[in-house]
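Problem 12. The chain below contains 278 residues. Write out its predicted structure in token notation.
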Amino acid sequence: MRYGVPLGLIHPGAWRDVAVAADELGFESVWLPEHLVFATDLSVAVYPGTSDPGISPGTPLFDAVAYLCFLAGVTSRVRLGTAVHLFALRHPFVSARAFATLDVLSGGRAICGVGAGWYRGEWDAAGVPFEGRGARLDEALEVARRLWSEPVVSHSGVFYRFEEVAFEPKPVRDAVPVLAGGESEAALRRAARYDGWISMPHTLETITPQVARLFRLAGRSVPVTAHAYGLGSPGEVGDWERLGVDRLIVRPFSRTRDAVAGLERFAREYGLPGRQAR
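Solution.
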């Protein structure tokens, strides 16, 4: 099992220290969420499945890929992912360039977690239609994959059209790995087409039917990155593995000031291969 750390659940002032600790302790990856902008009108910010606003307009927002480039410079091994990047809110040139830059600067450690998005307010503010965002995302990813791997690219699609362009430098690998988030049928099919699925927070019980749906729609097993809610002990990891999960994003702390100590404790208990925790 590989283990990731969700940096977005702690204060940004601690991101550097926690990422460095994760790198040294043997965690496989660190993850940042992103939004482009928050509207002050909360009527368009109800998080799916709840009756409450899913955002607070005063929350500081950072460019996730840019911040991960900074973290690439202070780490050496840990992989650097987005959970998730709203690829279709920008022209694919912009996001493809950002992730290629991160991959080159980090020596091939970038992971591109993407989602179609749930929060209409930022789409309206950016002037990008909220309806059809899934199809827009699919086309944007198609363009990015070609930019990352082909010498020259031209494209004529529904959402994007451009004459032949060159795109350098390429990522270190043939393409940056793309993990798709979301739990709709379209989102799960997207995950099957690319490099796997990245889940919302789940317990083992709540994620089991979602993984079954994913594998059924794909017609095969697909790599699964799960935000694990309430992982209790190392003995539970085998249950996640048998389900088909190959990466767990865990939060072994409840407060920012306890984050590094929580990672050290987790590393000892779960036998991570990094430095000996204090």
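Discussion. Residues 2-270 form a domain with the TIM Barrel fold (CATH 3.20.20.30). Students who got a different answer should revisit the alignment rule from Section 12.3.
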